[in-house]
Please model this.
Amino acid sequence: KASRPLVSKFLAMKLAARSWPEMNICILAHGMGGTEKDWQTWVEVLSKLYPDWSLHPLQKLAPGCRFMGKDVKELSSLAADEILEILEKHRSQEQHLVLHCIGHSMGGLILRGALPKVLEAIDSMELGHYVSLSSPHLGIQSTWLQPFHAWRNLCWLSWPISNQLLHLAVQDCAKRPFLLQLSQAEGEYMATLGRFRHRTCVSLAYGDPLIPPASGLIDPLVMLDSHSILDESFWQLNFDESFDSTHSDSGDQRKVASGWLRVPVAILSGFSLLLSFLLRVLVAVTSLCSSCCRSSGGRQLAPDTPSATLKDGLTWEASQDLKCTYPQELYEGLVSV
Model:
């Protein structure tokens, strides 16, 4: 109900501004521990692709974005003020403002939290494209069955210093965590996100120590194969069936050990595979035992849900790869747009 007047007003403004030339402004927000310099390459590339765009990496977030600095809500307010300063410089009666947003990691959440305040001040603006790069839309918690990721469940221990990690882990407020506020289907944040022409989520397939792929992609069913920790980094591009197979040779470009290095690398790789296999067996056995215990208690779960527990009034579920646990209410709000 709250989003209907906002959307109706937006459609009316869009029809009235069709005859105006567009002024495209792109805001780029860095994540935890970042600065505006993180966007130098992006600014160079986007300037060539869209020479008529005005690109603005946010510059005032860095002090608050340090590790265990300000929380996401405070940073959203700071970002909103800086975005308004930028937009005021470009406002013109003869131009129609179109705002694009790109956020990396925590920056994607900061932008979502900042936009309602921005649109409240400048309601004659259209929203173009929202892009998040490894942003934890579903939070950063993991199941305890993933030992290399489960440390994120202990973010609540940082509460005497900062609420930043608590916000990212959905551990800040038992009744209404800030990430849940951002994702409330009928709230102002989701109404604003729904106004974008396009919304895109991008995430690392593996290698991100903080953001699980399911959270970055808002896809609990995602299952991505990871390479050994001993392998050198390489790019992997996954194409669907509609893509021309003649271009698919650009993926999986890795370096291979040569000469005498092949022997120790082969031994270490074999040990890594064995350890990975044992961990998978442990996870499978533990999940089976847990499922048997739940079924014996008479509780029925959805067939595609690895786990579901009720905690703090929220229904917590696990992604298929068990690297992400999230409130079902959070996911349902996000997919509403």
In short: Confidence is low (pLDDT under 50) at residues 233-240, 247-261, 294-307.
